[in-house]
Amino acid sequence: MNFRRKTIIGSVVAAFVIAYFGNTEEACAVALASPDSHASSSAAFSKVASPKVPDKVHFADQTIDLDDDLRWERFDRELSAMAYTHGNTLLTLKRANRYFPVMAPILERNGVPQDMLYLAAIESYLNPRAVSPAKAAGMWQFMPSTAKEYGLEVNDYVDERYDVAKATQAACRYLKNAYARYGNWESVAASYNAGMGRISNELSNQQAESAYDLWLPEETMRYVFRLLAMKTIMEHPKTYGYILTPDQLYHPIETRIVEVSEPVDDWAQWALANGSDYRTLRELNPWIRSKQLPNKTGKTYQVSLPAKNALSRKKQSKSVYNKAWVGVSD
Fold it and tell me: What confidence tier does 214 reach under pLDDT thresholds 50, 70, 90?
């Protein structure tokens, strides 16, 4: 009997049993008790290892001791979930090779710890075109009002939340403001999720000094430990089963910059006139949000177009930002 016929028969039997007994645990137990299901169960599943939780983790020049059982369990939850969310974690590693070289120098110039790169990683999986159900957008997931407050242009034609460099600069302004208020980066991170007002009130009301010790809404309590888990995996991906070769990473795309200070009636025609095409233009400039640009103020925009051979995987220059991201398993 082939697999498809066995599956159909099994489904029919299960439906009959549930109809007879009702939708109860007894019915489910009977329906699942066929010899074939037990015989194949050991072959259907691979062994699943629980990721090892370190005794301590380091974040922004601070050591976090995980001997506290509540901290340990929260970290274990996020590390386990992230280690086995293979697709998103794998894509984050690949994208980091392209975007960390852009973002890291901006953080350094602004005096923001490099570990805050992992905040963008948990916000968007480093997808510059990410949009949340609440309409937060870009790699740093700014809401429109917050983006404008921190100097980004957001309208129907231009949305700089999708500009990796400009959004990173705006994020640095927010992070530095929050650090001036809290004096520790974990509370800064918590405020990025819940807002400065909420974190300030809870630190005061709970007489705590660190977001690690706050009782907060579940999403925010998870947030700071997701940040630690993302850093742990991205610094030691091979330890958690992520094996990549250099050619599998997403490499920086060499571009040439064309300045635009006038209206653009049709970006597709503009792209063709400048030796490219509309698809490539939009891929490299996700901040462009329409087929035209009124630009009534005469603002100068820097438009990225690919350099020669930049999009050829065979000819493009390749570099590995972090050597720990590639190689054989530990």
Answer: very high
Three-state DSSP at 328 gives coil
- Mapping DSSP onto H, E and C, the string for 64-109 reads EECCCHHHHHHHHHHHHHHHCCHHHHHHHHHHHHHHHHHHHHHHHH
Close Cβ partners of 109 (under 8 Å, ≥ 6 residues apart):
none
Cα dist from 109 to 26, 44, 59, 169, whole Å:
64, 52, 19, 10
* 57-88 per-position pLDDT tens digit: 999 989 999 999 999 999 999 999 999 999 99
Instruction: Report the alpha-carbon distance of residue 237 to residue 240 in Å, rounded.
Output: 5
Q: Which residues pair with residue 159 across a beta bridge?
A: 154
Q: Which helix (H) or strand (E) holds 200?
A: helix 196-205
For residues 106 and 114, give the distance between their C-alpha atoms in angstroms, rounded to a whole number: 10
Structure pTM? 0.84
**Residue 16 in tokens:** 């009959």
Query: 179 vs 27, 116, 172, CA distance in Å?
Result: 57, 12, 10
- DSSP codes, 3-30: HHHHHHHHHHHHHHHHHHH-SSHHHHHH
From the CB of residue 167, how many other CB atoms can be counted at a distance below 10 Å? 28
Residue partners of 92: CB distance under 8 A and separation at least 6: 121, 125, 126, 230, 234
Tell me how far apart the alpha carbons of residues 38 and 29 are, in angstroms, rounded to a whole number. Answer: 12
Which percentage of the chain shows pLDDT scores above 90? 81
